[in-house]
Design a protein that fits this description.
4 helices; five-stranded mixed sheet; 170 residues; Cytidine Deaminase, domain 2; single chain; alpha+beta
Length: 170
């Protein structure tokens, strides 16, 4: 990376964004109930992404984020493997009450693929069995303003039957 300043600069920008995201969450302890809030938190992390990545956002019983979003998988240009054991291992360790998964489509089009929908259905079922509901799956494109249809929520589109609530009292 010493010989390639643009890559070094991109890596430094990514590290700065990860640190800023973690700091924001630590200070604000935000409540996440809407996909727009997921977009607000996650869009900076995907701004320079050239390949798919999958993150989990772990929530407590009041829908507040537990720790920083965790990158679980980094895939290829157009795919990212997803395994329930890895998703729920972290959630169990951190005593999460619910999860939201987020991944990106570097192509820019956040439209979910058939594989995205099937993987999400498997994760919803695994969460039901384990007792940690999957609350939503948000896919981000590479446009980073909500007005540009920069994300799609599988919950909002009714593409998957998610847990009905986080069982939280406001």
């Amino acid at each position: 990376m010493k010989n390639n300043p643009p890559i070094l600069e991109q890596a430094m920008n990514y590290a700065d964004m990860m640190e800023a995201c973690a700091s924001y969450i630590a200070v604000k302890n935000p409540t996440v109930k809407e996909p727009a809030k997921v977009f607000e938190i996650m869009a900076p992390l995907f701004q320079f992404a050239k390949q798919e990545s999958l993150y989990i956002i772990m929530l407590d019983t009041k829908s507040k984020i537990i720790g920083a979003p965790r990158e679980l998988f980094r895939g290829l240009l157009d795919s990212c493997p997803t395994h329930a054991r890895e998703v729920f291992r972290q959630a169990i360790r951190d005593c999460a009450a619910a999860l939201i998964i987020v991944h990106n489509h570097p192509s820019g089009d956040p439209t979910p693929s058939r594989e995205d929908i099937e993987a999400t259905r498997r994760l919803v079922e695994a969460g039901r069995i384990i007792g940690i509901p999957l609350f939503d799956h948000v896919i981000l494109g590479n446009r980073f303003s909500p007005e540009d249809c920069a994300y799609i929520s599988l919950r909002e589109r009714n593409l998957v039957s998610f847990a009905s609530s986080l069982h939280a009292k406001d």
